[in-house]
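Incident review: delayed structure delivery

Summary: a single-chain prediction request sat in the queue longer than the usual turnaround. Root cause was a stuck worker, restarted by the on-call engineer. No data loss occurred. The affected request and its eventual output are reproduced below so the record is complete for anyone auditing the incident later.

Affected input:
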Amino acid sequence: MRRRKSPQWARYSDAELLRLRFRDLHLGLPRRAALQRAIRRLRDELAARDILLEPHFWFSDEWFSPDGIPGIAIPFYLAHPRLERLERRMSRSVEGGNANGLLQILRHEAGHVVDTAFRLHRRKLWRQYFGSPTEKYPAQYAADPSSRAYVSHLDGWYAQAHPAEDFAETFAVWLSPRSAWRRRYAGTPALTKLEAMDSLMREIRGCRPAIRSADRIEPVATNELTLREHYRRGLLRRMSCDFSMIDAALRTGFAPLRRHSRRPTRYLRADTCLRQARDRLVRHAMAQTAIDEYGARQLLQLAIERCRERRLWMRGAARIRQRNAEATIRRLARAGLRGERVRFTL
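Output delivered after worker restart:
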């Protein structure tokens, strides 16, 4: 089999890449092996549930499924390893950059696709359990880590953002072959939503979709925006989030280095310390508070990101750093359980 020729921009520096417009990337359809495997897996999962739907895919500037179009836009950076490296440098992470994360997002977006294709949001059962699909999307949403009214799937308690996202997140958990949702959500309000989802999916089983448009919305091929401007806008969205709850928990044992000071030997980067102790800290939070594993991991991940963004360090011997890290995760867990909110920008 002939290998596809690597694009010229794959050899560009970051500065050169950032000057390009999206359309200059000349991305076609998703052909990368990892993407094709994930797409086949998603289609197999839908077929196993007798949902007669095969979404179409294209590259855009971010993940989304447009209103009225039963398809999924994939972010441009997943088209090539060079673009992934740029994304990681500019955004600190790659959304969908590993096999599990990619499938999680695809299942979520498939929830929007199924909703659109079968016009499920028009049904009484949809509105009864998820709310009004016409509710305006907020500029920000306040996530309550203590709530058990929503499933836990994507980062950031995303089901709490909007009724349509609640539906898509619930669908993703329902679709996942090994989610064991009846046992995992037993006794919680989220279980009633999953049972409603199960009823809705039985209603459309073996049915042909009402909407079959193959249009592509906002493809990179027609996007005149430069990559530099794209990342600048993303940074502005991130800066408008409210992480005061996280910052309050980082007041003890975490601090920036003074400018021009030499790094003392007992100072270590805070994000590295927390990341290396992630599993132990999650277990500690679950043992010392009533928080669940998803909530503990989400709060700890936000703390890691804030430490990196604020360039915080931890000082002292290993046992002192461990004590401060454990106190931090306990403060975060208790704040979340008290109903304190983290605000995310959509």
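Verification: DSSP finds 14 helices and seven strands in the chain.
Action items: add queue-age alerting; document worker restart procedure.
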